[in-house]
Amino acid sequence: RGTGYAGDSLSAAYVAARFADAGLEPMGDVVNGQRSWFQHFMVPARRPERPLELLRTRNVIGLLPGRDPTLRAEVVVLGAHLDGQG
Question: Which of 7, 13, 27, 74 could form an S-S bond across to 1 if both were Cys, CB 3.0 to 4.6 Å?
Fold first, then answer.
């Protein structure tokens, strides 16, 4: 799964579906007035023959709101690499 390639997109879609199944709320980019699961960004392709090429990729972001009124504003971030290269 190279960053910015087809496997990267499939992995992100899989994680987003599992987040939805788990009851998380999407917290990515706003698309058509609604939050998506994805935060899109560009990365260099790292190809010597195309030094200026950029690839579009994305993070998957979901929120599981806390129930405790005192700790509700606290944030815990869990992260993982989808690209299989990190």
Answer: 7
